[in-house]
Amino acid sequence: ASASFLENGHFIIEEYSKESDQPFYYSIKDKGGRFLIQHPPLWPLLGAGLTYLLGLKPSLENNFFSFKILSLISGIILIILAYLLTKRLINQTAGLIIAGWLSISYLMIDYSANGAFYILQAALYLLWALVALKKNLKNKALYLGIITGFGYLINFQFIIAVPVSLLIILFQKEKPMLKKIKDALILSGSALAIASPWLIRNYLLFGNPFYYNHFVYYYFFEKSGVSRYIKDNVIYFNTNINTYLLISKNVLTNWLPHNIYYASRKLFILAPLAFVFFSFALVDYLFSFERLKKMIPLLLILAFHLFVTLPWPIMKFRYFVPILPLVFIIALEQIYNFKTKTAYKNILIGAIFVFIATLSFLTYRSVPTHTYYYDGAITTDPFGRKGEFDFMKEQGLIYEK
After folding, report:
1. How is residue 380 annotated by DSSP?
2. Which residues, at least 6 apart from 106, have a Cβ–Cβ distance to it below 8 Å?
C-alpha cells in the first residue's frame, strides 16, 4: 500500500487481474483491485514519505526499510515519553528505571525494528496520558483530539481515546458543565477533522466512511462458523438474530475467558515479576483514592484497550505492545508505594531488570528470525500457519541460513 501510494497515489494492495479476481468481501473487478481497508493510512503514508526523502524507488523492500526506520524512531520517542510520564507520576529516578526496563525488553526492542506500527501506537498512548495529566493546560481538549485523530489513523484501536478523553473531561470537577460540553465538542471535532480525509475516501470508494467495520463483522462471522455464499464473486453471510446470539455466546463463554487467561499468562512473562506488582496495584487502588485519581488516565486507556481486544476470537500477540509500558509504570508505582524498606524496593527493581534482560537474551537465542511479530515467532502465527513468514521470504525481506 505504501509503495502503491508513491507510484499512483492510491493505497492498492493488489491491482485487478484475472488471477486476483477471487471471491472477496467486495467486487475486486469493479473496484479495480484490493485496497487498503483493514489498516489506517498514516503508517503507509509515513513510510512512503520517508522512502521518497531517502531517494529510494517504491518497492516492498525499500518501503519496508523505511518502516523499520520509522519504528526505530518511534521506539526512541516511546522511551523518552515513558521517562517523562513516569517522572511526572512518581519521580525522576523512577522515570529512568522505566526507561531502562523498556530499553532491554525484547518486545520493545523487536517492535522498534520490525517495521510494525504498534510501537508508535504505544508512544501515542503515553503522549495522550501526559496531556491528560496536565490539569491547567490551555487547549487541552484540542490536544487530546489531535492525538486521538492521528492515533486513529495509525491504528483503529485508538478510537478508544474518544470515550476515554470524554471521561477525563467529565472528571474535571473544577470546570462548569458548559465548559465540559464545549471541550467535548472541541475534542470530538478536532479528532474527526483529522480522520475525515480517510473517512471521506472510504465513503467515496465503498459508500461507508467506516467500511473497516465490515471486516470486523466478517471476522466474527467466520470464527463463529456462520454460513456464507458467493454471488458475482462477492462473499455474503447468512445472518439473523441467532447469528448475533451465537457470537455473543462465543464472546462470553469462550473467547473472552480464553483471552483473559492468555493475556495474563503472556504479561506474566513479558513483565517478569513486575506483573505481580501490577496485579496487586489494581486491587490496591480501590483502597487509595488519591493514587487512583493520579493513575486514572493510564488505567482508563489500559482498560479500554483490553475491552476492544479481549473479546476477539484470537487476541493477537502484538496487541501487548501498546500496553506493556503502562503495565511497567503501574507496577513501579506500586513498588514505590509498597510499605517496606527502600533497600528491599531497590532489590525488587534490580531483580526485574535481571529478569527482563534474561528473558530478552533467551528470546533472541530461541527465535530463529529474532522477532516474535506473532506469538513467539514469525514462523508460526496464532492460526498455526506460516503465511507471514512465507510471504516475507518470497519478497526477500528475511532470509533463512
Report:
1. B
2. 359, 360, 363, 364, 372
35, β-bridge pairs: 12
* Secondary structure (3-state) at 63: helix
pLDDT in tens, 275-285: 999 999 999 99
Which bin fits 282, alpha (ψ -120 to 50), beta or left (φ > 0)?
Answer: alpha
Q: Are 156 and 40 in contact (CB under 8 A)?
A: yes
Catalogue the E-assigned strands of 206-253: 228-231, 234-237
Q: Does residue 91 sit in helix, strand or coil? A: coil
pLDDT, tens digit, 9 for 90 and up, residues 227-257 = 888 988 888 898 899 999 999 999 999 999 9
Domain tally, the chain: 1
Q: Hey, is 211 helix, strand or coil?
A: coil
Identity of the amino acid at 166:
L
Residue 400 has pLDDT above 80, yes or no: no
Grid coordinates in use for 369?
528470525
201 within some domain: yes
Domain that holds residue 65: 2-366
If we measure between CA atoms, which residue out of 266, 391, 363, 374 comes closest to residue 323?
Answer: 266
